[in-house]
Amino acid sequence: METLRIALISPAQTLDLRQQVLWPHKPVSFVQLPEDDTGTHFGAFLSEELVSVMSVFLKGEEAQFRKFATAQAMQGRGIGSQLLQHLLTHASSLGLKRIWCHARQEKAGFYRKFGFKEKGTPFFKEGVPYVVMDLYLPGV
């Protein structure tokens, strides 16, 4: 089995996977975020191929992760789980108290496996139902 390598990447490196996985019928500009230059971006690589990306934005003692995408052909192999676990470990090492995201409602079960809880009521982006999911980290 190939070894997964997780590394810091540039905002530009996230764009193709974001677009292909999350909004394939939209232009790449649709998945760019104004705050990309201030975020931390992680990429998961298999044999030097970028197969999963996640962008993290810190604010005080919490972080929001956005644009979490794993290549369609690589989904279901635990790659996204490893990348999310990497984020949780990183967040704990920074002493953060809360991690949250806007999750597609159909993916909420994935986040629940990590202890995330739904907060509030669902809302829509481009006709797709989303829910806020958050996780309070244990004290450091």
From TrEMBL:
Entry protein name: GNAT family N-acetyltransferase
Keywords assigned by UniProt, alphabetized: Transferase
CDD domains, per the entry: NAT_SF
Keyword Transferase (UniProt): yes
UniProt xrefs under PANTHER family: GLUCOSAMINE 6-PHOSPHATE N-ACETYLTRANSFERASE, SLL0786 PROTEIN
A GO molecular-function descriptor: N-acetyltransferase activity
Entry annotated with the keyword Transferase: yes
InterPro entries from the UniProt entry: Acyl_CoA_acyltransferase, GNAT_dom, GNPNAT1-like
Domain N-acetyltransferase stretches: 1-138
Source species, domain of life: Bacteria
Lineage: Bacteria, Pseudomonadati, Bacteroidota, Cytophagia, Cytophagales
